[in-house]
Specification:
By secondary structure, the protein is of the alpha/beta class. The chain is built from 10 helices and 9 strands. Helix content is about 35%, strand content about 15%. The structure holds adenosine-5-diphosphoribose and zinc ion (ZN). Adenosine-5-diphosphoribose binds next to loops.
């Protein structure tokens, strides 16, 4: 692994147009389960239950989905881990264009990345949004009331249905966020994937756009991905350990 750490550190040291792309695997060391590892969320819950059609179709499935989000471990007061902190360091070094994340846990922002530089392709669990008038409510403001409203929270403005501000299967991604992420993927010179199986589209197109535009691709993931053969370097190990060692070596290369 150390030769690969050295190669990635060399790429990072030589770039100031880096895009980092993260998936659930960057947050497992913060105690948040990912989706497709053994024991991951989709081994305990059926993803077909979490379509927007099901959410709208009946109060029963809405109740189930709110309970899932509360009980799945996706909403916790988890703390950023070494991998998130290393990505925040890249921004402090002036090397990071943006973070494109599939995660809804807000841990990149908690680690110190500027919110304006974090593109949340699948939304965020920090908010709930009214499906009628689009008003947003912080999740904290409605969590306590969920049991008393039997997990069917309503909009305080218009009485409409509240939905977690995350992208459900069958829903399109936030258009402006996706377009901004595509522009950055196409204009970076180093695209680093951390903790994603790269099997969900359109998010998984982004590393492709970067490679097509001539960027170098690095993948840090503890299981193989469909894009490994297009990467300059692939590290199949812990995101936290790899990212911490990379940042330490880059600092040494910069005489830090
Ligand atoms: N270090 C490195 N890699 C890790 C670690 C870790 N500590 N923990 C898990 N991984 C890897 C797993 O091996 C897996 O390949 O991270 C990857 C996580 O993949 P998924 O669970 O599929 O998560 P993700 O790629 O983010 O899924 C994309 O699918 O269900 C939807 O909306 C959901 O945003 C999610 C999307
Ligand atoms: Zn409303």
């Amino acid at each position: 692994m150390s030769d690969k750490i050295t190669r990635i550190s060399g790429l990072v040291a030589g770039s100031n147009k880096i895009v980092v792309f993260t998936g659930a695997g960057v947050s497992t060391e913060s105690g948040i389960p990912d989706f497709r590892s053994p024991g991951g969320i989709w081994s305990r819950f059926d993803p077909d239950e979490f379509t927007i059609q099901k959410f709208i179709s009946s109060p029963e499935t809405r109740r189930k989905q709110w309970r899932f989000l509360i009980e799945s471990g996706l909403i916790t007061d988890a703390l950023p881990n070494r991998a998130h902190l290393a990505v925040s360091e890249l921004e402090k070094m002036g090397k990071l264009r943006c973070v494109i994340t599939q995660n809804i846990d807000n841990l990149h922002q908690k680690a110190g990345n500027e919110p304006g530089r974090v593109f949340e392709l699948h939304g965020t669990m920090g908010w709930a949004r009214c499906m009628d008038c689009r008003t947003r409510f912080s999740l904290d403001s409605i969590m306590q009331k969920l049991p008393e409203v039997d997990y069917l929270p309503e909009c305080g403005e218009c009485g409409g249905m509240l939905k977690p501000d995350v992208v459900f299967f069958g829903e399109s991604l936030p258009e402006r966020t996706l377009q901004a992420a595509i522009v950055h993927a196409r204009s970076c010179d180093l695209f680093i994937v951390i903790g994603s199986s790269l099997v969900v589209y359109p998010a998984a197109y982004l590393p492709l756009y970067a490679v097509e535009a001539g960027a170098k691709l690095v993948i840090i993931n503890n299981s193989p991905t469909p894009f490994d053969d297009q990467a300059q370097v692939v590290i199949g190990g812990s995101a936290g350990e790899a990212m911490e060692r990379i940042i330490d070596l880059v600092k040494k290369m910069h005489g830090g």
